[in-house]
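@channel sequence for tomorrow's demo:
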Amino acid sequence: MNGMRWVLSRRVPETERILLVESGKRDVTEKLIPHLKRFFGENVVIDLLTCWPGLPSQLAPDTERQVWRVTEYTDDHARWRLLHEVRNRRHGIAAVLYAGGPIMARWRAASLLLIPAKFLIANENADFFWLDRGNFGQLVRLWMHRAGLLDESAPRTLARFVAFPFVFVYLLGYAVHAHLMRLGRMALGLHREKS
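structure tokens (generated this afternoon):
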């Protein structure tokens, strides 16, 4: 299974169908759909992979549209069958919401890895960019923003990241020391008796 096509290429494939992975709040999807229609044309069919009931108000019911609800696929076998079905639709373009929430995080990752499409990454403001080598800097900035490295807490976050191994080793050493001392006292018969 080859996923993430066109990552190294800046070429945008022509398509009449887009897969929208609604891995964010519905209001973000509502803002994103008009942008997608302006960019790709009003006649583009937007298929939806979602966990929400119903359709976004920006999408009129359409017999050509496919909607997959991940909540209907409850076991691993069914989820693999769903991914296989989505993959077989051969979407040229897939838009994935990265709105800063954990909604459908595993589906988001699975889509990126297993669906052979050119990917758009959309944020909580419904701004989007192509996932390709030309936008690597934007992807890094998005990741840094999500990791808390671009705001006023960045120095604190970096300090925690740097300090973590030292704090972990110190606490591990302290625990080993405390247990060895306890075992030594027990071996010498110096342990305290409960009253």
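heads up for whoever presents: The helical segments are 26-40, 76-88, 105-114, 136-146, 154-188.
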